Amino acid sequence: MSKRYSKLGSGEGPNYDWESDHTFVKVSARDTNGAYTLMEDNLKASFALGLHRHDTHAETFYILEGAVDFYVDGDWHRCGLGTTMHVPAGVPHACRVADASPARMLMIFQPSGFDGFLAELATMTKADFADETKMAELNARYDIIPMGPVPPHPDDPV
Q: What superkingdom heads the lineage (predicted)?
């Protein structure tokens, strides 16, 4: 009989170590029949994610260490230890680490799917990343609508 539950310790689970972050899938789409995905994201000091939105899924972020600046629906928010940021479907958002310092957060994607996006990214070559058509198809398949770079932050030098 297969187990009807899952348990993962620190540093366990499918993981994707990118230039700007190291993400661990803790609860996958398969674990929840597509209801949600839970991930741990270890943001490196260079992490920044440009403005985008999702038309069919929401994201919730819970800060475990450090601080993250979120740009949500036109407003900047500094989110530190213990802060929860919830972004409903359709709301434009971007984020970056605060003060160019590493941070760590839990992320919930509801419904699930983002774990599949990362798994596909992990199989891609530099040529694939440079192929605008391929990237547009991938983004569309996973409900990612790019809208531009990270907007200027009020603390940025002018």
A: Bacteria
